[in-house]
């Protein structure tokens, strides 16, 4: 799997209230939610984000509330992948469960700039920043999570492995 | 093994688990609310779900936008009710029997020591106070539990916190947890179990234990837990802890979290002059009867500052009724507060006290993120109920000692 896209850069500790405020939680439709995604801290983001763009963030991305709406809102914008130094755990699960690709990587968030174009090659385990030619290695997911991802999300995995 | 590891092992048919293990565990109780359960119900149906694994083990509580604040939220609550009817789920709590989920579930005795509880709400970690492993999950996780009764976990490492010393007057569980988060940061216990122990915790009242475990998520933890007694579920003496921290609480002052992070902590003596527009006393963190009693002890025969509105929200109907019988409601109203039916309401900027641009709120809730309670240009400070009541009288953040 490969992704190539423009970076939207965010700092440490982006919380789910910032990703999607509670006043919009009257729906769980990802297209509706995406219209307000991250608008509190970056009002231009939901207007200008393009399909295939990539979020690069610092530590503890997605902390706070368990609202899966946060992962859905990002998915709804067309963001292809989130790369962060670390993810908050419920947000991490939500992304795996709904099939939104996420990667933990410590170096890229330090060395990239807003608007850089990067290429991610999951098979080779490499991220290349085409704007500054820097490369970083990415580790894969543990086999247990890989199984959920390759099943096509949690519900399909549960049907296959748990209920049978 | 630690208590967390023991509970996870017991629920996954294993003799032993170690941090980092992936397990598939049996769930004793699964919880959803009006925001998170509708998406879980959708996923359940989409996956071809016909019957939930065990209707007795599912709890549905419309508490976030209840009583319905608008048409959309009315429809969300209705989806819970219909699903509960179709699936014959007895633990659906309609308005009138409803309470804030994390106060209501322990009150109803639905969670016991050694249980494994998941909830599509991040503050599910509250039940660690009774010695259960309890953690927040998303809607799809909840849907998977609806179908299978199981949930996957990565066994967390345990971070042990030892507290000693007698808590000073006007401090409680809220101050212990705010002080701790202020020290370790919002990701200080990232992915870990926070085990709260020591002489202070042994002597801590149940309501304070709930408050303490409730905010474990605010340090990034998977769960917060307190050993429920001396004999049953407890950590072995030779347990492995990833870290251990000790705190002497005998000299801590009431703690205040400044905008916009629960880790941005100052002791009340260093707060300075901060005028406020609104006070909220309530939520799954501090809406229990002892919280209301503390607030009442300060508000007795006093008046709320003319420029402040004070919203008091008993967390459950029983707490509401107890407060009424004890004369607390009468006292609150005479002081100039309003008292609301149980709801999460203003804590998440839902309703019943949303903040306007430029407004400042002192709240006993759990999060003070940008825009959490309303306008992104409003500000939220977090503190315990005593500080909240004192501040409501003074019109600025104030030490209860000054009243």
Molecular structure report:
The complex is a heterodimer of chains A (164) and B (403). Chain A has eight helices and seven strands; from the N terminus they run E-H-H-H-E-H-E-H-E-H-E-E-E-H-H. Chain A has helices at 16-19, 30-34, 45-48, 69-77, 89-98, 108-111, 143-151, 154-163; strands at 2-9, 54-57, 81-84, 102-104, 117-121, 126-129, 135-137. Chain A has a seven-stranded mixed sheet, with helices on one face. Chain A is globular, with a radius of gyration of 15 Å. The two termini of chain A are 28 Å apart. The model of chain A has no long low-confidence stretch (mean pLDDT 95). Chain B has 403 residues and is of the alpha/beta class. Chain B has three domains: 22-154, Aconitase, domain 3, CATH 3.30.499.10; 158-252, Aconitase, Domain 2, CATH 3.40.1060.10; 256-402, Aconitase, domain 3 (2-Layer Sandwich). Chain B contains 13 helices and 18 strands. Chain B has helices at 3-10, 37-46, 71-87, 101-107, 139-148, 173-184, 199-202, 206-214, 283-286, 289-299, 317-325, 328-335, 385-394, and strands at 22-26, 29-33, 58-61, 91-92, 116-119, 133-136, 150-154, 158-164, 193-197, 223-225, 243-248, 255-257, 265-267, 278-281, 309-312, 338-339, 360-363, 379-382. In chain B, the strands form five sheets. Chain B has a five-stranded parallel sheet. Chain B starts with a helix and ends in a 9-residue tail after the last helix. The mean pLDDT of chain B is 98. Chains A and B meet through helix 4, helix 5, helix 7 and helix 8 of A and helix 2, helix 3 and helix 5 of B.
Oligomeric form = heterodimer
What structural category characterises the helix and strand content of chain B?
alpha/beta
Q: Provide the domain count of chain B.
A: 3
Give, in spatial order, the strands making up the sheet with the most strands of chain B: 4-3-2-5-6
Query: What share of residues of chain A is helical?
Result: 25-40%
What is the architecture of chain A at the second tier of CATH? Alpha-Beta Barrel
**Largest two-chain interface:** A-B, 44 and 51 residues
- In CATH, the homologous superfamily of the largest domain in chain B goes by the name Aconitase, domain 3
Overall tally of domains of chain A:
1
* Residue-averaged pLDDT of chain A: 95
Mean of pLDDT of chain B: 98
Q: Major β-sheet of chain A, in short?
A: 7 strands, mixed
Instruction: Write down the Rg of chain B.
Output: 20 Å
- CATH architectural label of the largest domain in chain B: 2-Layer Sandwich
